[in-house]
Each structure stands twice: as C-alpha cells, then as structure tokens.
Design brief:
The chain is an alpha/beta fold. The protein is built from 7 helices and 9 strands; from the N terminus they run H-H-E-H-E-H-E-E-H-E-E-E-H-E-E-H. The protein is 26% helix and 16% strand. The strands form 2 sheets. Strands 3-2-1-4-5-9-8 form a 7-stranded mixed beta sheet, with helices on both faces. A two-stranded antiparallel sheet has the order 6-7. Helix 3 links the parallel strand 1 and strand 2.
Length: 273
C-alpha cells in the first residue's frame, strides 16, 4: 500500500525511517511507507497482505465516506489504512500491543486518521454498529469461534469480509442442512460435511491456533450467524451480506453473558486471543 493524501509534509529521511522500522519489528504486515520504505519486504508470503487486498478491493465500495468500519485483528493496520483511504471512519482493534504500536506509528508517519484500540473480539458488541467489518485472520485463533461470529453479527454490518485458515477441499455435502437422526450419524464423517479440526497443541509453530474449519463448515457457521456469503475474492476469503430474511440468532442476553464469561479468560490450557 502506498501512503496517499494526508501524508505528513515532513517525513523522516529514508535511513531514519528504515532504522525505525527495524527497531519496531518484527512485522507481519508489509506496509509501504514514504520514500519506498517497506516494513517486511522479505515476507515469506510475498507482499503481504497487499496481494490479498487486491482481490478484496473490487468487491467493496470505492467511496466509503459516511461508512463506519471495524478491522478486527488489525495487526499493523494495512487493511485499516486501505479503508481509510476510501474515506471510511475506521477503528482497528487487536489484543497485541506490539502490533498496535506499529499501527499507531505507521498512521503518524503516513498522516492517516485511524483509531486503534486494544480490544478482544469478545468486546465488539460494546462498540456500536458498523457498516463494514473485516474479520480476517482471527477466527482460527479463537477458543469460542461461533460466539465471536454471533457478536460480529450483532454489529449489523452491511458488509462483512471473513477470512480463516481452512482444511483442504471445497466439497459441500448436499444434505448438510437436512434433518439428521442418530441412525445417519455416519454422515458426520463425510469430508464434505461441515466440520472443524480441534488443535490442542501447536499448529504451524503457533500456540495461538485452536481450530481449522473446512469450507463447508465456514459456510454453515456464517449462515448460522446471519451472514450470506456472496463472493469469494480469494482463497479462504468470503465477502458476506446480511442473510435475506434473517437467520436464527441466539438470545442477545445469552450471547452477552457468554461473552462476559469468556472475557474472564479460560480456566486453564493454552492462552488465546
């Protein structure tokens, strides 16, 4: 991403900027800063997450003036800045102060007006409503993923962009939404059945991973939370509208109570976002 209008008139010289980038590392987002400086030019995934944004961008309004946007798990702020460049009023949240410090510094360097707060996804219901929610790269790190989706749905967004690590395969069982009795429970073993693999230990050298859903499971959970996936702009990415006619939602008071309990932290085991 290139810093656009609103950039500070007197940016640090390149050597100073590169030194500050180094001091504030490690970086997961490769931000493009003034003078051609990048925060993670040798990223293992390439120009990340710019290549993901190039797929998503055509499916979002180019003019987001008047839109309130929430970037959940904002990291160093790449997507937050991209939405702000389209005119949105953006709040980026993350539970990692290291990444939030990077995002606030990058906002200052590029002159972007974006707010960043240390918050959990389980706190989003207290933030009011949003027109656009980005919920990317967070789901599989959550101990209580469906609760998180219900809380995101409570924000009543016009658009929601969802991304999660997934299991291999694109198949979806044709009878996945049909009534299922005990004598047909063998269907649950079908690789095309909606499912999530549970991770008790580490996955991909990362102790913060809890779940890896399959494609069918993502579709089912999105629908159950009241979202309708309308386009897939890239691998593991889903752009969603509110479901037509609504979908069954949990009792808000029960959801609030569950979220309050979760914010108290797990009684044991691995610590998670």
């Amino acid at each position: 991403m290139t810093a656009q209008s609103g950039m500070l008139s007197h940016c640090p010289d390149r050597a100073r900027l590169e030194a500050e980038v180094e001091a504030r590392g490690p970086w997961f987002h490769n931000l493009h800063l003034p003078g051609g400086v990048q925060t993670a030019p040798g990223h293992r995934f390439g120009d990340f997450p710019a290549f993901k944004w190039r797929g998503i961008a055509p499916h979002l309004p180019t003019d987001l003036r008047g839109w309130r946007a929430l970037d959940i798990g904002c990291n160093a702020g790449f997507y937050s800045f991209a939405l702000a460049d389209r005119g949105a009023d953006v709040l980026g949240i993350d539970s990692d102060e290291h990444y939030l410090a990077q995002a606030r510094w990058a906002a200052e360097v590029t002159g972007r007006q974006v707010r960043f707060e240390n918050r959990s996804v389980y706190e989003v219901a207290a933030l009011g409503s949003f027109d656009l929610v980005l919920f990317m790269g967070v789901f599989y790190h959550l101990r209580h993923p469906l609760l998180a989706l219900d809380l995101v749905a409570s924000l009543a967004p016009r658009l929601m962009v969802f991304q999660s690590l997934t299991l291999d395969g694109e198949a979806v069982a044709a009878d996945a939404t049909a009534p299922l009795d005990f004598d047909r429970r063998h269907r649950l073993s079908d690789p095309a059945w909606p499912r999530m693999a549970f991770i008790e230990g580490w996955f991909a050298d990362d102790p913060t991973n809890w779940w890896v859903p399959n494609h069918a499971g993502i579709l089912g959970m999105l629908r159950s939370a009241g979202f309708e996936p309308v386009v897939r702009p890239g691998h593991e990415i889903y752009v969603c509208h509110p479901a037509a006619g609504g979908s069954p939602r949990p009792d808000p008071s029960a959801t609030d109570a569950a979220a309050a309990l979760v914010r108290g932290g797990p009684p044991g085991g691995k610590e998670r976002p």
